[in-house]
Automatic annotation (TrEMBL):
InterPro entries on file: 6-hairpin_glycosidase_sf, 6hp_glycosidase-like_sf, Glyco_hydro_100
Record-given protein name: Alkaline/neutral invertase
EC annotation from Swiss-Prot or TrEMBL: 3.2.1.26
Similarity field: Belongs to the glycosyl hydrolase 100 family.
A matching Pfam family: Glyco_hydro_100
Superkingdom of origin organism: Eukaryota
MF GO annotations: beta-fructofuranosidase activity; endo-alpha-N-acetylgalactosaminidase activity
Catalysed reactions listed for this entry: Hydrolysis of terminal non-reducing beta-D-fructofuranoside residues in beta-D-fructofuranosides
Chain's role: Invertase that cleaves sucrose into glucose and fructose.
The keyword Hydrolase is assigned to this record: yes
Length: 575
């Protein structure tokens, strides 16, 4: 048996190879108890111990030091729990303090350069900053790199929030909300109302001296896929803005509440689904080309989970909000169970899959998805450390994608989709497989690359995604901020420090490329844009978070104590 196989025993406990979950306890994952929480949980001016532990945190940050009050309830409202919106770029000051009283040496010269690049990337609409351009590179064909991408703006937004400059984030959230309201059509087919754009651009009419916005919801994108991740990032960013500024008035606007409802109604509708995960097309997120990430890819599932949790914090408990919250609670309940059990892979699970029986019929089936042991790729056993594990790329009928995807695993840690044990197992894996996942430049978007016949079939012979290039095992500096956040949340900042030091050896010298190629990431990406804004912003966010770990609060959510599953550690965790 494995976490893929859940067996209900006579006494009502649900067992699998490395976990025993009491079904009664499962029912006690009572999300609903949080639903009716009053909106302002922490009205008292004095900071709670929990809040203090986040804000005054010494390095390293241990998640155990703080049990945040904001899980499954609207608690970002504590006026004293928020980051003070004073314009500051601590990283720019000559002597930076780590939260633990240690004094850092002079800030790295790359920091000032990165801030310059980030500010030059700002895009203005009618005099107001509304986002950052994807890349400031004029040497190559622009394609759509001259646009503001929703996903690319997230690290820029976090950098501005951490620096006490929330205006551009607010403008961005409001402008994209307006774009959501547009009628969206691809040929003659109309997209759902809640779809958020992949990107937008400001058009200047020099004759009439006017500015208008133009957005792409997938109708211009290569491959014509709508970005499923955009709406999730929008909700996550709205929560980061609210948490960081303490300004609840933005999220409380009827337009924003409606925007959240529209996004969620796209994913919470009932249909033919037999799983609580979200079914989607290839290329609908950061990996926006055909790469075999269709079905139930981890990136979308983790973002979906995080967006649901953020929405719980943002939605007003009025008539419409309350009803939606009840649906979210149910979905979170099922999604948590599904992901933690079926997507999780460690040495024990791998052994169980290897010995699977197939063609089992009925609800007693152990191998529920009828996965063929022969489909286990050779590399996966070599990759799996004794201590460690990760959420695999995808699960569907007779299909497990064993590839490691960085973004999905980091978001699983930040959102507490992963249990604490799973989170530290993921960090164990990153440490043990440092050469493979970090190599010369952080960080592999996925591992390993697909090649030869498999590459032809899976990518449709895509010349941009050849092995160890771009989305196919390329190394993306932007992922540094996600790794750093995950490291801080799991109390292992030294891992992030190592990765940042590596990035500092090359990033600036190489002109802040979009991605690197090669098994170790030693080539600058074949078609990588230079001065890619999210490479710049990702570095800044990583540096700022490491210097002041309290920033983590805007992008991480703690597991609620009441949600804690009774998952037993597998032997590989306890060994
Ligand atoms: C590429 C990336 C995508 C990113 C876009 C703009 O298409 O695959 O994730 O959003 O460039 O940088």
């Amino acid at each position: 048996m494995s976490t893929l196989d859940v067996e209900v025993s006579e006494n009502g406990s649900v067992k699998n190879s490395d976990s025993i979950i009491d079904s009664h306890e499962l029912d006690e994952y009572d999300f609903s108890r949080f639903v009716d929480r009053p909106r302002h949980l922490n009205l008292e001016r004095q900071r709670s111990c929990d809040e203090r532990s986040l804000n005054d945190l010494p390095v390293p940050f241990s998640p155990h030091q703080s049990s945040r009050a904001d899980n499954f309830g609207r608690a970002f409202d504590n006026p004293d729990s928020v980051y003070s919106p004073v314009r500051k770029s601590g990283c720019n000051t000559p002597m930076s303090h780590f939260g633990n009283g240690m004094v850092a040496s002079d800030p790295h010269p790359m920091i000032a350069e990165a801030w310059d690049d980030l500010r030059r990337a700002l895009v203005f609409f009618r005099g107001q900053p509304v986002g950052t351009i994807a890349a400031l590179d004029n040497s190559d064909e622009k394609l759509n790199y001259d646009q503001v991408f929703v996903r690319d703006f997230v690290p820029s937004a976090l950098a501005f929030l951490m620096n006490g400059e929330p205006e551009v984030v607010k403008n961005f959230l409001l402008k994209t909300l307006r774009l959501q309201g547009w009628e969206k059509k691809i040929d003659r087919f109309q997209l759902g109302e809640g779809v958020m754009p992949a990107s937008f651009k400001v058009l200047h009419d020099p004759i009439r001296n006017t500015e208008t916005l133009m957005a792409d919801f997938g109708e211009s994108a290569i491959g014509r896929v709508a970005p499923v991740d955009s709406g999730f990032w929008w909700i996550i960013l709205l929560r980061a803005y609210t948490k960081s500024t303490g300004d609840t008035s933005l999220a409380d606007k009827p337009d924003c509440q409606n925007g959240i409802r529209l996004i969620l109604s796209l994913c919470l509708s009932e249909g033919f689904d037999t799983f609580p995960t979200l079914l989607c097309a290839d290329g609908c997120s950061m990996i926006d080309r055909r790469m075999g990430v269709y079905g139930y890819p981890i990136e979308i599932q983790a973002l979906f989970f995080m967006a649901l949790r953020c929405a719980m914090l943002l939605l007003k408990h009025d008539g419409q909000g309350k009803e939606l919250i009840e649906r979210i609670v149910k979905r979170l309940h099922a999604l948590t169970y599904h992901m933690r059990n079926y997507f999780w892979l460690d040495l024990k699970q791998l052994n169980d899959i290897y010995r699977y029986k197939t063609e089992e019929y009925s609800h007693t089936a152990v191998n529920k998805f009828n996965v063929m042991p022969d489909s286990l790729p050779d590399w996966v056993m070599d990759f799996m450390p004794v201590h460690g594990g990760y959420f695999i790329g995808n699960i569907g009928p007779s299909h497990m994608d064993f590839r490691w995807f960085c973004l999905g695993n980091c978001i699983a840690i930040l959102s507490s989709l992963a249990t604490q044990e799973q989170s530290s197992a993921i960090m164990d894996l990153i440490e043990s497989r440092w050469e493979e996942l970090v190599g010369a430049m952080p960080l592999k978007v996925c591992y390993p690359a697909i090649e030869n016949h498999e590459w032809r079939i899976v990518t449709g012979s895509d010349p941009k995604n050849t092995r160890w290039s771009y989305h196919n095992g390329g190394s993306w500096p932007v992922l540094l901020w996600l790794l750093t956040a995950a490291c801080i949340k799991t109390g292992r900042p030294q891992i992030a420090r190592r990765a940042i030091e590596l990035a500092e050896t090359r990033l600036s010298k190489d002109g802040w490329p979009e991605y690197y190629d090669g098994k170790l990431g030693r080539y600058i990406g074949k078609q990588a844009r230079k001065h890619q804004t999210w490479s710049v912003a990702g570095y800044l966010v990583a540096k700022m978070m490491l210097e002041d770990p309290s920033h983590l609060g805007m992008i991480a959510i703690e597991e609620d104590k009441h949600l804690k599953p009774v998952l037993r550690r597998s032997s590989s965790w306890t060994a």
